Amino acid sequence: GFLxxxxxxxxxxxxxxxxxxxxxxDEWEERMDAVGRTFLGLTLGCARCHDHKFEPVxxxxxxxxxxxxxxxRIADRPTMxxxxxxxxxxxxxxxxxxxxxxxxxxxxxxxxxKAQSAKLTMQIAVxxxxxxxxxxxxxxxxxxxxxxxxxxxxxxxxxxDYTVGKARDLxxxxxxxxxxTGAVVxxxxxxxxxxxxxxxxxxxxxxxxxxxxxxxxxxxxxxAARVIVNRVWQHHxxxxxxxxxxxxxxxxxxxxxxxxxNDLGAxxxxxxxxxxxxxxxxxxxxxxxxxxxxxxxxxxxPANEHLAxxxxxxxxxxxxxxxxxxxxxxxxxxxxxxxxxxxxxxNRRRTLYxxxxxxxxxxxxxxxxxxxxxxxxxxxxxxxxxLQQLFTLNGRFIHRQAEALAASLMKQKGxxxxxxxxxxxxxxxxxxxxxxxxxIAFLAxxxxxxxxQYAHALLAGNEFQFID
Length: 468
Description:
Blueprint: H1 17-40, H2 59-69, E1 72-78, H3 82-108, H4 113-130, E2 138-151, E3 158-164, E4 170-173, E5 181-185, E6 194-196, E7 199-200, H5 209-217, H6 221-237, H7 258-270, H8 275-283, H9 295-300, E8 313-314, H10 317-327, H11 363-366, H12 386-394, H13 396-409, H14 415-427, H15 433-442, H16 448-460, H17 462-465, E9 466-467
Antiparallel strand pairs: 1-2, 2-3, 4-5, 6-7, 8-9
Helix pairs in contact: 1-2, 3-4, 6-7, 6-8, 13-16
């Protein structure tokens, strides 16, 4: 699933294979970089052209792992077991063949084109109707198939030839150029993690994906565990124990609390790599439960590197959108299902289920610091821009939530009761005397429009978006 979400680069097959090989090698590098930085905190992509300048990763290591990615192809996978999928795959193949006949028929336009078209259309409809789960959703994934870039036979251009069910080992690309190759490197793990006689684990099962995954949580367990712990810590505190979460080696910054990072990593592995355990361990700590109010610590340690207080945190855009839906009573908490357009008026599902288009990200997400979906993003940018404020004032989504919140408040009796209920729901506190007086004065006419404007102001406030 992780590899299935990889970006694919356009390949103009009318071009010669020398150019297409470079494009394919760029795709392998993207996958190497994403896997290395995400799970190991190492910039493996740097070793494409030469041995890594800072980390113990050789160019041979790079191509030993790149062989795994050269042995798979992006493919849609069904969300069901193979035995249930088999009859559906057969039915879909038959429908594809019939649709091809239908298209050719419309091009040729024989005299009885309407009758033949109706017959083919009926056959397609019947197959779809009698095949259980015909429209089962597919997910992005990969299939085992070795890729070879070859010259087109008998004509100018290139062909991409996949050998299904096979794997391949890559030759070293001298200076990163796939058209100038050296020795072939068998698929294996990084040489710095030997398992037997000073040699690293060999990848011999299919493409080697399973071997690679096992090597990362066995031989490289101390490193992978520290990377995961650091990312979870960053999620809760806004800053990791190591400030460069995708570079925990010599290329990154040193951890502020190396002993704590090592201890959490070791106990994380001991507790079966349980993320629930890790979250609980952090959230139950006195460090996480601190207030941001510590003037002395703020003066001596403005960056809060020593964690003597809590950092003020702004909700990520997903949590902010979900919080507005929850406050307005509109949130759909159902689990699973296909992704939906976040701009759709009737989309009340958690933002987690929003469709992400890599080349054209949703504008709501983009202007609120959602990471670039075309590249690895170690952290989210933290910006405050006029566009964010304009969305808060004029965005249709927040207006709809304000109207829904106002409607729910109007069901209660008494202006003061409603104001208190709004503050309890949004801020988990009662309104201050000045806030209560201002709100009562504003809502004197007690009409729906005024309550919608009041709800809008509360949803747009910093207190709703920032956590102390």
